[in-house]
Amino acid sequence: MLAKRIIPCLDVTAGRVVKGVRFVELRDAGDPVEIAKRYDDQGADELTFLDITASSDERDLILNIVEAVAAQVFIPMTVGGGVRSVEDVRRLLNAGADKVSINTAAVQNPQLVRDAADRYGAQCIVVAVDAKRVPDASPLRWEVFTHGGRRATGLDAVDWGRKMQALGAGEILLTSMDRDGTRQGFDLELTRAFSDALDVPVIASGGVGSLEHLAQGVLQGHADAVLAASIFHYGEFTVRQAKQHMAREGIEVRF
Amino acid sequence: MSSIAVVDYGMGNLRSVAKAIEHVAPQCDVVVTADSEVVRRAERVVFPGQGAMRDCMREMDARGLRSAVLEAAREKPFLGICIGLQMLFDFSEEGNTPGLGLLPGRVRRFPPNEMIDSLGNKLKVPHMGWNEVHQAAGHPLWDGITDASRFYFVHSYFAEPAQSDIVAGYSLYPFPFTCAAGRGNLFAVQFHPEKSHEAGLKLLANFAAWQPQRENDTGDIPGSRGVTA
User: How many CB pairs lie under 8 A apart between chains A and B?
Assistant: First the structure.
């Protein structure tokens, strides 16, 4: 049976992995290859690198990181952040990324998703959706935000997910802007709404503060994979501990 | 020095495949190539692929690689990966594309109305992630790999061999489908060994050391038992 995946997420800028709270107070967390290897040793099913670099000069450094990690860590790697063109997708794939995540550019130019999927296959195109609850909406609704959650789009998130799937997204990385950084757990209603509406896999993201939250993402959110950053970065839990917990909850995982 | 050619017909990232082989077989000269002469000279050939099958076939032909690939698949240790497995069969439903016809059978899409697991949960397509690979037959490429080890998959289509004796491995999603097939010097896998951690690296190491027996060149995998989807 297919295992549910646990995916540590690493923020990268200027060639280093950093950790911070909501993009502020960034601190150097170390060498990307060493950190990737550590998660690999712990049994991570995939790795996601998010390039949070602001300047285009530094942006190319992520290619070096992808190359270095791909030469030593033999599990799938997704890279996102600042992907704007099919050329960006090509360069990341050639550097050794297995999947490329597109976020803001998908909203600005949905055709990019179709062009990239047509060229390289849906299997390597992840669309990242940052969603925020619409206050007081009944039934529940969520709106897509871009630019790291700062800009509203007016788009209904579930409709947007369906559209991205139709254009060729092979997977959706779904982040709750309401929960991101709060450690209160995934927005399970959001996760389930996406997972149940879509035929492609959905990765739940945003809000993990405990191992129980990871299990809830699968059991209640129906997520195919769960992504977390801080609980792993700060050494609170290892990926293996997370898997042991999920297995105890009856979730199929890979050891 | 033993040489391994990774056939590059312009469809995506081959660095991972080459790096993984270099990692497990440092004694081998691994070259990513679109040159049919280099493919012909290599002692071993890896045939990867990603994207849509029709595009893969077209790009392979556009680079004049077909005959070198066919020769290699008949003569020397040959490993197909992902679409590189699907291309070996007669035909794919994906874009109604004829394949290379080296293995009998067709490639089908996971049927939407059957993608429900035993608990009633919807299964997603692409089939993406780590699934158990059941070894249907003993084979040198399985050496040292525990039966039902997990490998990394990402695909929406799967091969349905017309002969059960070419099935070397299968996975469940939710029904059994062939994820490894071969005969003689030819072996092919639907999963990505280069992304499958220790089990995948072991399979690649086995490939780098594989000496197919001449007597099996036209025959079946010894001891094979088929699965029917």
Answer: 106
pLDDT band, very low/low/confident/very high, at B217 (cuts 50, 70, 90): very low
Residue-level pLDDT at A60 = 80
- Other CB atoms within 10 A of residue A174 CB: 29
Does the pLDDT at position A94 exceed 90?
A: no
pLDDT of residue B224: 44
Give the rounded distance of the alpha carbon of A172 from its chain centre.
8
Residues of chain A in contact with residue B11, where contact means CB-CB under 8 angstroms, are 120
B121 CB neighbours in chain A (<8 A) are 222
Residues with Cβ within 8 Å of residue A77, at least 6 apart in sequence = A36, A46, A47, A48, A49, A66, A69, A70, A96, A97, A98, A99
Question: A23 pLDDT exceeds 70?
Answer: no
Amino acid type, B27? Q
In chain B, where are the structural domains located?
3-209
Residue B192 appears among annotated catalytic residues: yes
Inform me whether the C-beta atom of residue B34 falls under 8 Å from chain A C-beta atoms: no
Interchain CB distance below 8 Å, A121 and B122: no
The matching CATH number, chosen from 3.30.465.10, 3.40.50.980, 2.30.42.10, 3.40.50.880, for B3-209 is 3.40.50.880
Residue B132 · residue B92 · CB < 8 Å? no
> What is the average per-residue pLDDT within A204-231?
96
Q: How far apart (Å, rounded) are the C-alpha atoms in residues A74 and A39?
A: 12
Query: What is the mean predicted confidence (pLDDT) over A167-187?
Result: 95
A5, A98, A170 member nearest B13 (Cβ): A98
- DSSP-derived 3-state class of residue A179: coil
